[in-house]
Design brief:
The protein has helices at about 20-55, 65-80, 195-210, and strands spanning about 10, 15, 95-100, 115-120, 130-135, 140-150, 155-165, 165-175, 180-185. The protein has about 210 residues and is an alpha+beta fold. The protein folds into two domains: about 20-55; about 65-210.
Amino acid sequence: KKIDESNIYTDNSSVVLYDYREARKKDAKILELVAEKKKHQEALDEGNALKRKDLEDAGLDLSEFSSEKSLLDAKNFLDMFTPDYQKLDAALDDSKIHLKFSNLTKAGKLPKNVVEASINCSSSSSDDSIICYIKYLKTGYPNMAEVHLWHNHVRISASIRTVEGDFRITYIVMSDMRKDYEKTLHHDNCPPASNNAIEIFSQAVKDYWGL
């Protein structure tokens, strides 16, 4: 095979021929991983469609669930419990939204939580991001939520649960990814109506983000 002379560089002592075989192997590996990831996602999408049909056949009214509704619910949770999300450089209206349907129970009945919505938005100029997971009952009403806010490699998360008929924060944790350090700031599975978890979350934003 003819050698491409543009890949040969000469100094006073030797001629060095650049070998691109390793680079080609790396490129091939990347393409292989991308193909595997795509194939895996296609399988997940197919499974999600099957679960959606099973739920519908079991009597679930799918009109109660939509990306638009989930985005609105996410805004309501964020505004109510973690309003400091507005300090982040991430536009919630530009979120990527995915509805993940649940499997039927072993008895072939509707599970308690039939759909989980993930709402994800991030900044194009920083690592700021907002992630919200919402689990829905068969009525289309939210049952619980998880909120994760990222800024400068530090994540502050809140678990929101239904307690005595009302939504309340039951858990707050701070995670510093650079230091591999995590700290629980609030944990109460049955908080009273007057619990101060919202203030704790807001204080964490000041303490760990400086915002």
